[in-house]
Amino acid sequence: MTASPTVRRRRIARELRQLRERAGMTLDVAARQLDMSKSNLSRIENAQIGIKPRDVRAALALYEVTGADAEALIEIARGAQQRGWWQSYSDVLPEWFEFYVGLEAEAATLRTYEVEAVPGLLQTEAYAREVFRRTAGEDGIERKVAARLHRQNVLHSDNPVELSVVLNEAVLCRPVGGTAVMADQMAHLAKISQLPNVTLQVLPFTAGGHPAMNAPYVVLTFSDVADAAVVYLENLTMGLALEEVGQVRGYSLVHEELCRMALGPEASLTRLMEASRYFA
């Protein structure tokens, strides 16, 4: 059973869409039978909004799913109505980013490439505060920092996420928040790279061109095979989740190539220590 209500909502959405298609029903027909609008059913099937357990039961009856299979899906729907910790930060987290955090909280593996900044999961408090100050201003900054630090629990839980990070070398050279902040951030990266579930690699300038130029990404996979992998892309005003198998495969291949082009973990640690001397 998945723990994140976001992942549960996504599971229900996928199952209902597949069941409707197997039943040979269009969105129009199914929506009329369920006494809801076509747009609402479409949003449910795309995990944009949730669905109540009683409505899941009605949909399963329509699609002729009964017994243990039906009860298992209804139980997942109940779990999808629970609140994730991140929802208490909804005053400072955009809805589209809450969706990502809900996926991140349940992920078994995260593979990411960053061009400009240290990934949020690896940021120190002072570095995170400066990033928010530069990109979003002072409004709600302490709440945003607190939420970011809370996210980092996925690295230290009893069943921590497996994290593979490739950092553009520019991240190590760009002073964010001054020398003291950067010195602390470099030391933190060196320390956290020693965790058994974290692999940190630096993509050096000498690697030249590569397949992810100007294209940061996160590829998330989940321990339950019923929860499909997803690619997450983000800019200043929105996030985008890509779920097509070909899209996920493409980004996974890119990450494998970046890992081959990047310095190995030991050489990357050496590069981190070299960079830290510039901020001593």
TrEMBL record:
What residues does the HTH cro/C1-type domain cover? 16-70
Entry's transmembrane regions: none
Question: What Pfam families would the database entry show?
Answer: DUF5753, HTH_31
Q: Which InterPro entries match?
A: Cro/C1-type_HTH (IPR001387), DUF5753 (IPR043917), Lambda_DNA-bd_dom_sf (IPR010982)
Name this protein carries in UniProt? Helix-turn-helix domain-containing protein
Q: Which organism is it from?
A: Micromonospora peucetia
Q: Lineage of this protein's species?
A: Bacteria, Bacillati, Actinomycetota, Actinomycetes, Micromonosporales
